[in-house]
């Protein structure tokens, strides 16, 4: 008999439950993750803490083992799917802050890249902080960004890339904005695990954002600066 079968999530204390959620995320158990999220919510955890401590914490372990060749793509996909299950529950709650709309952002993962968990997290956190977010998804060629910017007229363009092979495409997008005389119309924020501040500067972005929380803070700073400039 395996111990696993006997585990009743609601009987675990908070620390044990989070540990168990790490295991369940690792094993791609979506229903268990959803149950764990709901239990933590019932226990008064904030959606933000559940997201960062239980889900992102678990995904970090998955990331390490993927890097080290212990997990493979199918397992990682299952883990990502389980994480999405939890995020679906948290998303409306994170957005429910009642904060006034502070700005608008178009965000998408660049061409050749299908990673979207980080981007989705940034979107959720931005919404939670009162931003309107238009998510144009994954694998976006420059045309998609231009179209969305034209239609949506956001304050911010956000781009995400998780591969060293796709991150240079961010420069293609920024260079095209420059060519078309549009660069100064938008605050350009970039993020993704392989990027760093130097890269952000080198490609002409306004800022590199290490994580979703930094993205929110950076977006707020730049938008209020822009509004002050317009007012002044
Ligand atoms: Co991919 N993958 N993957 N993968 N994958 C990485 C990125 C990798 C580092 C794994 C590894 O080898 N250690 C590696 C890249 C190596 C490199 O480029 N140097 C890699 C590889 C190689 C690949 C494939 C090529 C594997 C293959 O097929 N052989 C392939 C590529 C597919 C493609 O895109 N064309 C591939 C596929 C996949 C899956 C489909 C299986 C799955 C993606 C599922 C999905 O996204 N729906 C997947 C996953 C899950 C990962 C890891 C394990 C986890 C990524 C993740 O979701 N992290 C990843 C390893 C790792 O990063 N540790 C890996 C959690 C997320 C919350 O963090 O995305 O960094 P992150 O986002 C953060 C910040 O970076 C920042 O805020 C977020 C929240 O805090 N941020 C932004 C991100 N975007 C932002 C945008 C902003 C601001 C902040 O704009 C304003």
Topology readout:
Blueprint: H1 14-26, H2 30-42, H3 47-67, H4 73-95, E1 103-109, H5 117-128, E2 131-135, H6 142-152, E3 156-160, H7 169-179, E4 187-191, H8 197-202, E5 207-209, H9 212-231
Parallel strand pairs: 1-2, 1-3, 3-4, 4-5
The site of CO-5-methoxybenzimidazolylcobamide has 37 residues, from helix 3, helix 4, helix 5, strand 3 and strand 4.
Q: Describe it for me?
A:
This protein has 2 domains: 3-97, Methyltransferase, Methionine Synthase (B12-binding Domains), Chain A, domain 1 (Orthogonal Bundle); 104-231, 3-Layer(aba) Sandwich (Rossmann fold). It is 56% helix and 11% strand. The protein has 9 helices and 5 strands, in the order ααααβαβαβαβαβα. It has helices at residues 14-26, 30-42, 47-67, 73-95, 117-128, 142-152, 169-179, 197-202, 212-231; strands at residues 103-109, 131-135, 156-160, 187-191, 207-209. The chain has a 5-stranded parallel beta sheet, sandwiched between helices. The termini are far apart. The relative contact order is 0.10. Residues 8-102 form the B12-binding N-terminal domain.
Concise overview:
The chain has 232 residues and is of the alpha/beta class. It has helices at 14-26, 30-42, 47-67, 73-95, 117-128, 142-152, 169-179, 197-202, 212-231, and strands at residues 103-109, 131-135, 156-160, 187-191, 207-209. It contains 9 helices and 5 strands.
Task: Summarize this structure as a short list of keywords or feature phrases.
232 residues, alpha/beta, Methyltransferase, Methionine Synthase (B12-binding Domains), Chain A, domain 1, Rossmann fold, five-stranded parallel β-sheet, 9 helices, 56% helix, binds CO-5-methoxybenzimidazolylcobamide
